[in-house]
Specification:
- Strand 1 (5-13) and strand 2 (19-27) form a beta hairpin.
- Helix content is 29%, strand content 32%.
- Helix 1 (60-72) packs across helix 3 (108-119).
- By secondary structure, it is α+β, with helices and mostly antiparallel strands.
Length: 192
């Protein structure tokens, strides 16, 4: 559990209409892992326990990965909303427990524009090296996650509210979509 790992899934519809998934495994570094896109439509990855609160929910780099996953996937996958980025991560309030989240794209134009705009704000202009800029963004967000660990899901939903995404949490073997009320309370949306 020292490094991030990922399983990237390819979705294939067989001649008889059956959907088949195959997975490709990757091991990364303590702070990142390769996520395969293109013919892959969903990915689950692990933020190691030692990442603690800073790794307790999706990072900015994860948002970039979701955007790439969505943009590179086949049209049929975009239409049926099967594109998802999943995360197994430490619970910010109890590092011995884990949470499982999923992100899906509601609006890929909003997601793409929000990432591009945030990546290029003046706050990051002094970082001319792209990798150093991303590292600064990641560290800044990690500090905010730590400062908001008691209400991390609400903070995440508010921070990324204009990114065109949906956040789900696995609870009791059920995926629940989380949303934020006007008074910053996290609620579970009813299943449609």
């Amino acid at each position: 559990e020292k490094n991030e790992v990922s399983y990237s899934f390819k979705r294939q519809t067989l001649a008889d209409g059956t959907i088949n998934y195959t997975a490709d495994y990757n091991e990364g570094t303590p702070t990142s892992v390769k996520i395969l896109t293109g013919t892959h439509t969903s990915v689950i990855h692990l933020h190691p326990k030692k990442s603690e609160t800073a790794g307790s929910i999706f990072s900015f780099q994860d948002m970039m990965a979701l955007n790439s996953l969505y943009n590179d996937a086949h049209i049929y996958s975009q239409e049926d909303n099967s594109i998802a980025l999943l995360l197994l991560c430490p619970d910010p309030l109890n590092n011995e427990n884990h949470n499982v989240y999923a992100l899906t794209v509601k609006n890929n134009i909003l997601l793409n524009d929000a990432i591009t705009n945030y990546f290029n704000i003046s706050k990051w202009a002094s970082y001319t090296n792209i990798d150093k800029r991303l590292e600064a963004i990641q560290n800044d967000l990690a500090d905010k996650y730590i400062a908001n660990k008691n209400n991390l899901e609400a903070f995440f939903l508010h921070y990324f509210e204009n990114y065109g995404i949906s956040l789900y949490k696995l609870q009791n073997n059920t995926w629940n979509q989380l949303a934020l009320t006007n008074n910053n309370t996290v609620i579970i949306l009813p299943n449609n």
